[in-house]
Amino acid sequence: MAALGWLTPRRRSATARSVLAGEASAEAARKSSEETRKTARADADEPGFPVIGDVHAAAFFDLDNTVMQGAAIFHFGRGLYKRKFFETRDLARFAWQQAWFRLAGVEDPEHMQDARDSALSIVKGHRVAELQTIGEEIYDEYMADRIWPGTRALAQAHLDAGQKVWLVTAAPVEIATVIARRLGLTGALGTVAESVDGVYTGRLVGEPLHGPAKAEAVRALASAEGLDLARCAAYSDSHNDIPMLSLVGHPYAINPDAKLRRHAREKDWRLRDYRTGRKAAKVGIPAAAGVGAVAGGTAAAIALSRRRR
């Protein structure tokens, strides 16, 4: 019976500190349970979103650190190095830029410009078809395992509702198109590198699809597709994409940098964070909790599915 001693009333007096710890733990559990019930009630009362069958609505997703961990251009550079497109010193620069991006979690214009210039010089003289084929291989090698399950679940919810979903990224459109196709998305808006007779010239058409340029691309696509931007959604991690997020009626801050987090709170935008085990902050209309990559994806999918019923 000694083994069952923990089931019987305690025979020793608890210290004041242990009593305090026990009471605090019980109070925290009670509050957590109540908060869960409140969130569940709020989710149940929220109008369905995305709206099933709304052909005038669509979703636009930033790529780097929103859909995928890190920057696509850096992963692409790693794959090109493996295929001997450039030298070790260039790989070291790519590696440093990628490490900085992942640690800082924000897009530094100088780093991104340097990466784009490097990529343009590397692909100059190569055929577009060749890079498209290599892009498929690089996706499998370096990108597939870096997709945030939570963000992918959000994109799938829009697809399940019958809406089109596009990636919108400063990455080369060829890379973005590969990723969009692999994820089952509608397509991609990306930076266009100039080519003549199917061969890259080493120059861009216009400028990189970054910041305000993304907003203009979304606006143009919405006009061509007959979309009502007030009924559309956009998702991004970066304050650089505030112009794009501000265009739509349903902006989401995903894994946001500090500036975007502050802006989202000021504007009452929804926020989800899949980078850590902490519960995502809920901004504006109650949203599903982000509790890590896999758990976050499950929570988002369940919450969005519940809202559609």
Report what the structure shows:
The protein has 309 residues and is of the alpha/beta class. Helices cover 51% and strands 13% of the residues. It has eleven helices and eight strands. Strand 2 (164-172), helix 7 and strand 3 form a beta-alpha-beta unit.
Give the structural class.
Answer: alpha/beta
Q: How many distinct beta strands?
A: 8
Element-by-element helix/strand order: HEHHHHHEHEEEHEHEHEH
| Structure annotation, total helices | 11
Q: Major sheet: order of its strands?
A: 3-2-1-6-7-8
Mean pLDDT: 75
Sum up the overall morphology in one term.
Answer: globular
Query: Quick one: biggest sheet?
Result: 6 strands, parallel
Distance N terminus to C terminus?
52 Å
DSSP strand content: 5-15%
Seen as an oligomer or otherwise, the chain set is single chain
Q: Mind telling me the C-alpha Rg?
A: 23 Å
Helix content: 40-55%
Low-confidence stretches: 1-12, 21-46, 277-309
Provide keyphrases for this structure.
309 residues, alpha/beta, six-stranded parallel beta sheet, two-stranded antiparallel ribbon, 8 strands, 51% helix, 13% strand, disordered C terminus
Topology summary:
Blueprint: H1 16-45, E1 58-61, H2 72-82, H3 88-104, H4 109-123, H5 128-143, H6 149-160, E2 164-172, H7 173-182, E3 187-191, E4 193-196, E5 199-204, H8 212-225, E6 233-236, H9 242-247, E7 250-254, H10 258-267, E8 270-272, H11 293-308
Parallel strand pairs: 1-2, 1-6, 2-3, 6-7, 7-8
Antiparallel strand pairs: 4-5
Helix pairs in contact: 2-3, 2-5, 5-7, 6-11
